[in-house]
Amino acid sequence: MTGIVDTVGFTTAFTVLGIVIGAVAMLLATVALPAIINRLTPDIDEGKEIRRGNVAVAQYFGHVVGSAVLGIAIIIGAAIIAGIHG
Fold first, then answer.
1. CA angle, 67 as apex, 64 and 71 as ends, to 5°?
2. Domain ranges of the chain
3. How far, in Å, CA of 16 to CA of 69, rounded?
4. I need a surface site. Which of 26, 34, 45, 70 has the fewest CB within 10 A?
């Protein structure tokens, strides 16, 4: 019985730790990705173009950043599920 309690405790602790690390990683990614895109496209000021109503830049910027955040979320979700089933 003690082994089961230990296993459940460790699984819960690792899952909670994974959730916390995942949340921090998502916040960092959400802040860092637009800055990275801005550095990769130095000739285009995305914020200025979006304010001017340039839909193409807004869609490109939104799709790239959104896709990257979604990819990171999938990786974090897989890590949390692995922690639950591990």
1. 140
2. 2-85
3. 21
4. 70
Q: What is the mean pLDDT of residues 21-27?
A: 84
- What pLDDT score was predicted for residue 1? 64
Q: Cα separation of 55 and 38, whole Å?
A: 17
Does 86 score more than 60 pLDDT? no
pLDDT in tens, 56-81: 888 888 898 888 888 888 888 887 77
- d(Cα 2, Cα 32) in Å, to the nearest integer? 44
Which residue shows structure tokens 């990705």?
A: 33
